[in-house]
Amino acid sequence: MYAPAGVKTSKDFPVPDRMKAWVLGDPGQLTLKDKPVPVPKKAEVLVRIDAVAICATDLENIYHGPPALIEGGLPFNKNWTPGHEYMGTVAALGPGVDEYRIGQRIAVEIHAGCGQCKRCREGMYTSCHNYGLNYGDVDKGHRANGFTTDGGFCEYQVNNINTLVAIADQMSDEEGTLVVTAGTAMYALTELGGLVAGESVVVTGPGPIGLMAVAVAKALGAHPVILTGTRDNRLKIGLELGADHVVNIRKEPDVVAAVKKLNGGKGVDYVVECSAAASAVNDAVRMVNRGGKVCLAAFAHEKVPVDVAHIVRNNIYLYGIRGEGKSATHRAEAFMRQKRFDATKIHTHTFPLDDLPTAIRYAKDRVDDAIKVVVKAKMNAAQKEAAE
Ligand SMILES: [Zn+2]
Ligand SMILES: [Zn+2]
After folding, report:
1. Dist. CA 155 → ligand 2 center (Å)
2. Distance in Å, CA 85 to ligand 1 centroid
């Protein structure tokens, strides 16, 4: 039985020594293996992973490599376990930890940062200057589970206490996995963006981050909130999450004109770009008003020419976002706890952990209109039936 030196465990919460963990081989190749249950150090806990959602960034890591960075390079064939949007139950406490108790349900943020660089000291730990430096003689202690350290497609993982978010008892496991998604939208709009109530927002692209950006913008008092996209079924979910207007760009080819018409002609205060479309940046800087802000949240695959003169002439702010920073997940969880929006509307499928490749196929190919696909190590019979 699991009883490492210096680690607090509970007889009410027995932990095995070994666990099942998916491991990445060559690009796109995942194998279910047996690994030792990891051991929490100072300021860390062991989390039993109860549910983990698949993110578009997991697909980047698994099929292409970056932004995952393992031992200074690509993540392939390094016995590395991907997965980062998980929630679970605290199962053991590292030395000195009294902030959480064994048996407590938590969601997680991804980035612990190094805690010692300029950005970490500012609370911008997702922009840590020591990203991925956690091995050999460059070990700065940086952790981003599922990116620079082992992640959540397994049964147990260690997390720094600063990455934990206590969740309400009534929040389902599936909803718990969405705290970090909503937290990313919160970070984009508030800490990085400076949104104040009553300002206008366009979200381009109704993927999980885009839909959560709609929900969080509305909950923050933005008005109007406009969502653009190509799929009516996803735009409909955007309306349910609080969008005042939606624009299907297949039906409205001049999306900039359509957006401006919906907001009195001058453009909006913020655009959150979540589509990764080739035209997205040039469209976004024309949808935003003079002096407005554009947050780039999607990983574009191609390099596209951008109309820099238009950005300069119009005093437009353009900023990228990586992850969830400044503990924005805690504020996102507070919105979810108060039922200010129903994040579960974007969860569509649940599979057992053993069926991860099927779950990934659903997420990647959007099988059966999949949006957020979740895997769970312990699925009860009813859930299994529903998934089949
Ligand atoms: Zn993610
Ligand atoms: Zn740092």
Report:
1. 28
2. 6
Distance 162 CA to ligand 2 centre (A): 13
CATH number belonging to domain 18-110+145-177+342-387: 3.90.180.10
Find the ligand nearest to 324 CA.
1
Question: What is the predicted pLDDT for the residue at 382?
Answer: 55
227, β-bridge pairs? 203, 246
Ligand found nearest the CA of 212: 1
156-160 and 44-53 beta bridge pairing: antiparallel
Fold of 181-320: Rossmann fold (3.40.50)
Output the CA–CA distances (angstroms, integers) from residue 326 to 86, 136, 158, 188, 229, in the order listed: 19, 28, 20, 11, 29
Look up the pTM and report it.
0.95
Give ion ligand 2 contacts, CB < 5 A: 113-114, 117, 120, 128, 130
Ligand nearest to the CA of 140: 2
Give residue limits of the domains in the chain.
18-110+145-177+342-387, 181-320
Burial class (CB in 10 A: 0-12, 13-18, 19+), 17: exposed
- pLDDT, tens digit, 9 for 90 and up, residues 24-80: 999 999 999 999 999 999 999 999 999 999 999 999 999 999 999 999 999 999 999
Q: CB count, 10 Å around CB of 65?
A: 16
